[in-house]
Amino acid sequence: MSQLPTVKLLIGGEFVESQSSEWREVINPATQQVLARVPMATADEVNAAVAAASRAFNSWKKTPIGARARIFLKYQQLIREHMQELAAILTAEQGKTLADAEGDIFRGLEVVEHAANIGTLQMGEFAENVAGGVDTYTLQQPLGVCAGITPFNFPAMIPLWMFPMAIATGNTFVLKPSEQDPMVTMRLVELALEAGIPPGVLNVVHGGPEVVNAICDHPDIKAVSFVGSSRVGSHVYHRASQNGKRVQCMMGAKNHAIVLPDANKDQALNQLTGAAFGAAGQRCMALSVAVLVGEAQQWIPELVARAKSLSVGAGKDNPDLGPLISCTARERVTGLIAKGVAEGARLELDGRHVHVPGYEQGNFVGPTIFSGVKPGMSIYEQEIFGPVLCLLAADSLDEAIAIINANPHGNGTAIFTQSGAAARKFQEEINVGQVGINVPIPVPVPLFSFTGSRGSKLGDLGPYGKQVVLFYTQTKTVTSRWFDDEASSGKVHTTIALR
Predict the structure, then answer these.
(1) Hey, which residues are catalytic here?
(2) b/e for 286-299, b at 16 or more Cβ within 10 A?
């Protein structure tokens, strides 16, 4: 075990070996091969990372916007040049297919590109002569040290949602990647330093609950961004908020799609299949529930046939589905499938016994489809985070909308229809933050913000886009008056009004 590579910490511009006595293994989920060891950072190491970020902030906040932008212009080019290398690392440790790994990186790359032009969103406001000789203007200034806690399912995209936007707006950053697949994140961090991010502006610590709590508690960290499960996200939000920090938490989901009988059948079924089973269902934006309205309920056999045609295998072989992240994840998903059967749902397609030649130890679950699912069943109430699609029936669009609005989550939803009137009614009445119309996974491009809602989000402002600029900056309002010599001697006023 001592010969395995170790994942380093990044503190003050240096990659350092942790002195921790607690280490975990990074495991290839297709083979169970141990790829590396990752440390659970000590309290002193976390403090050192925050201290390095605090020192760097004093100069970084004064770095011209253009100089910061040029770093991210260089960074996006380096990511493009290393795309295949990054995808191979991501696939080995996370399991997703090479094509999906490149998609993971590319969606993060889009945010890096946006970070290079973020200065236009940091401009303040100015009003001249709001009172006699008085001007008022606002400044958007960085907060200081910010931190990010990222999940296993998008180890490239979500770190790239966080630190580029925070750093481009003048903050410094402490990143805690998922301990399950930190290697591609660390390679992205290496490229960020190569692009010119100065020492201490970006720091990385690894760990579990103790490190998460240390980030929530540290008095010098001003803001925390989190993506992950609802259980951990709720803990992070409340603990960090109680310590006076700004917090944004993107959490669990149960995303629904409505399929109307007037939808283009082939397009709707193809998109539903891809959105339900892509990335083995390990997406917070996966379409894990479809509400089939009226005659669309007759399409189930064709949906099952499409799902059966998907290939399952090791990500490096570029199948349609790779493995789940861990043995524990596989056991949880197969256990929920068994519970769905026990609770009365009809198992249309069972993916529990998929066999991948040469990868007998892999954490594979094939596409699984339940029909006759009803609210209250475990497979409906819980986020399965696996390749399991639940089908519900409704007699009308109104009934389908009511089903979705009754669910506590609000990450994303979609409708498949050729009716403009139905689509407009849906977008107006649905109580979910991100809506797709014939678009199965409605994650917005970085010009906009990720706008999950209700039980899927805590905090007012989302990651990337215009909203995250407000999250990572504080507004300072300046009211200014300049006197010439003749006007400097006047009557004393004791009222609050400007004159």
Answers:
(1) 284
(2) bbbbbbbbbebbeb
